[in-house]
């Protein structure tokens, strides 16, 4: 038990996407400093896009992040299409939804099973689950089965689950083959019970840390992750293209990531925000399958971000079955366009929250200026606030347990350091 | 049977190959679980060590002295090192700043100085001997499977 000053250092937080660090300073039983540091070695993509032609930009910026590469790809394509005034076909819209659904299923399942589930079962890793215990054995296999179906959706629609090569400005370079839809539907139906099981596990999970913060997400009536309006929990509505005007960039000298406030308020983006603000738009089968879990929303419990992700897996599964059962691929080329100067904005809901790309383009199609705002940057201040509040209330815990609980809290936010930066170490120092 | 002691490390990159590798577990873990022990794989587990490693797969390029030191430590403690993906093999696309004109370099100089970046982003081979590589952005899956398959024969 720590009554006064203490010193604790944890070099590397595991089971998150990328590397990151935290410094906590405690003096006379009071937290004096709590900084969430994202000291990645910057790759300067916003400078690198300048002078490049728009046709090269989407695949280039997909390389910002391996895990949500297809979200960056789609967001960037939409920004360029916005600048060029391109309206895509219904088929392109549906195929992009399948690609994004595949990403959400795979990425959320990676987070829930590989990063979070070991905390619930007291294991070091999903791979350390005891195969002799039926429940644990099943969960390991559920994890692989669900992630694989997410990959299959992305491969079918986009050609690959990471850095998909088929999507392009105006449509798709290569179209998927007819005849595979039924097989994909069967595979989706086979994992449905497994997804319902993981929803139940996170519904029963008693981890709780409530935060009085603003939740914000792109609104879509059918929960398609491609809406046109940003909504917030205090009922503000902002056209997506103007989103950046409402964000205040906060410089954290100890962190290489950009942090943001929303109109001066601490806010959160991601699955919890989407579920809090848009659960009415979920697929009817998902509303039925996750009925009791959905009653927990709206929620201020940060750990319900995990539950919200589990429900979103089910929604993406049901939505994909719906689309695939009606989608007959017809041959079509990407929409042709004429280069023109202008500004284009793309906003989508990536797995971890609202993703924003904006490019200023000259008459030759060359990018003059680019802005990219990623979800983890938007959540950075909120993560820091939660960690500070949690530490202050739990200074009585043993060092090892305090560090472990703070890691669990960081994982609940599902930060992505590849997007925002690259290196997090937890250091708790004595003053 | 002695398990192959494997390390998976990342430096400056987008970790696309790390994601591809975790997704390969979906279909290959059943075969690998009795043949591979992960000594260090931050994305998968706690308690990661850099000691007595048979094969280290290293993704990403090198941007700082701190990374150079860690890379050399991995080299010292690994029998084989395999560079994974374009950034580890060529320093691109992580190393866009190597290609910037003088004006853009001046613009980012305060960040390079503040966070002690090296002057240039470099591939692994600049600092250590690399035994083999899997090119690609992300890495070529077949080549990776071939290499790991040969190691656990």
TrEMBL record, chain A:
Needed cofactors: Ni(2+); Fe cation
Presence of keyword Protease: no
Positions with a binding annotation for Fe cation: 68, 419
Binding of Ni(2+), residues: 65, 68, 416
GO molecular function terms noted in the UniProt entry: ferredoxin hydrogenase activity; nickel cation binding
InterPro entries per the UniProt record, alphabetical: Ni-dep_hyd_lsu (IPR001501), Ni-dep_hyd_lsu_Ni_BS (IPR018194), NiFe-Hase_large (IPR029014)
Binding site for Mg(2+): 372, 422
A Pfam family annotated for this UniProt entry: NiFeSe_Hases
Record keywords: Iron, Magnesium, Metal-binding, Nickel, Oxidoreductase
Listed PROSITE patterns: NI_HGENASE_L_2
Highest taxon listed in the record's lineage: Bacteria
The protein's name: Ni/Fe hydrogenase subunit alpha
TrEMBL record, chain B:
SUPFAM superfamilies in the record: HydA/Nqo6-like
UniProt KW Manganese keyword: no
Keyword terms, alphabetized: Oxidoreductase
Molecular function GO labels: iron-sulfur cluster binding; oxidoreductase activity
Source organism superkingdom: Bacteria
InterPro entries the record matches: Hydrogenase_assoc-protein, NADH_UbQ_OxRdtase-like_20kDa, NiFe_Hase_small_N_sf
Residues of the NADH:ubiquinone oxidoreductase-like 20kDa subunit domain: 27-148
Protein name: NADH:ubiquinone oxidoreductase-like 20kDa subunit domain-containing protein
């Amino acid at each position: 038990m720590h009554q006064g000053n203490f010193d604790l250092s944890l070099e590397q937080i595991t089971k998150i996407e990328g590397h990151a660090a935290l410094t906590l300073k405690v003096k006379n039983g009071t937290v004096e400093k709590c900084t969430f540091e994202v000291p990645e070695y910057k790759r300067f993509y916003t400078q690198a896009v300048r002078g490049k032609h728009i046709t090269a930009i989407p695949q280039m910026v997909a390389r910002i992040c391996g895990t949500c590469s297809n979200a960056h790809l789609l967001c960037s394509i939409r920004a360029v299409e916005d600048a060029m005034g391109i309206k895509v076909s219904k088929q392109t819209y549906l195929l992009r939804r399948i690609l994004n659904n595949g990403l959400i299923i795979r990425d959320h399942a990676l987070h829930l099973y590989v990063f979070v589930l070991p905390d619930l079962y007291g294991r070091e890793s999903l791979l350390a689950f005891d195969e002799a215990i039926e429940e644990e054995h099943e969960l390991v296999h559920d994890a692989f089965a669900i992630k694989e179906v997410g990959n299959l959706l992305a491969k079918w629609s986009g050609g690959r689950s990471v850095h998909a090569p088929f999507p392009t400005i105006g449509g798709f370079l290569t179209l998927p083959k007819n005849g595979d839809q039924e097989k994909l539907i069967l595979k989706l139906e086979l994992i449905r019970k497994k997804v319902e099981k993981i929803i139940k596990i996170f519904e029963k999970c008693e981890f709780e840390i409530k935060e009085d913060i603003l939740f914000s997400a792109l609104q879509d009536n059918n929960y398609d992750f491609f809406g046109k309006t940003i909504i917030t929990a205090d009922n503000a509505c902002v056209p997506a293209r103007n989103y950046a005007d409402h964000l205040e960039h906060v410089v954290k000298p100890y962190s290489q990531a950009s942090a943001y406030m929303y109109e001066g308020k601490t806010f959160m983006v991601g699955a919890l925000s989407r579920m809090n603000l848009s659960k009415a738009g979920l697929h009817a089968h998902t509303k039925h399958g996750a009925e009791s879990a959905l009653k927990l929303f709206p929620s201020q419990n940060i750990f319900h971000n995990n539950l919200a992700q589990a429900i979103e897996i089910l929604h993406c599964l049901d939505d994909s079955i719906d689309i695939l059962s009606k989608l007959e691929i017809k041959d079509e080329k990407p929409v042709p366009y004429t280069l023109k100067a202008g500004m284009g904005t793309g906003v989508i809901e990536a797995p971890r929250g609202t993703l924003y790309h904006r490019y200023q383009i000259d008459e030759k199609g060359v990018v003059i200026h680019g802005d990219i705002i990623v979800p983890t940057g938007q959540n950075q201040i909120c993560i820091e606030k939660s960690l500070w509040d949690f530490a202050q209330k739990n200074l009585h815990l043993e060092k090892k347990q305090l560090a472990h609980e703070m890691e669990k809290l960081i994982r609940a936010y599902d930060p992505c350091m590849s997007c925002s930066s690259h290196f997090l170490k937890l250091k708790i120092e004595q003053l | 049977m002695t398990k192959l002691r494997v390390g998976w490390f990342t430096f400056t990159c987008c970790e696309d190959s790390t994601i591809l590798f975790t997704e390969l577990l979906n279909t290959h873990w059943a075969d690998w679980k009795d043949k591979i022990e992960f000594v260090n794989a931050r994305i998968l587990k706690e308690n990661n060590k850099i000691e007595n490693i048979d094969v280290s797969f290293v993704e990403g390029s090198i941007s700082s002295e701190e990374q150079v030191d860690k890379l050399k430590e991995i080299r010292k403690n690994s029998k084989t090192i395999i560079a994974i993906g374009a950034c580890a093999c060529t320093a691109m696309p992580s190393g866009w700043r190597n290609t910037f004109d003088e004006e853009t370099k001046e613009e980012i100089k305060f960040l390079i100085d503040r966070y002690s970046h090296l002057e240039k982003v470099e591939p692994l081979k600049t600092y250590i001997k690399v035994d083999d590589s899997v090119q690609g952005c992300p890495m070529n899956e077949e080549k990776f499977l071939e290499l790991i398959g040969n190691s656990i024969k």
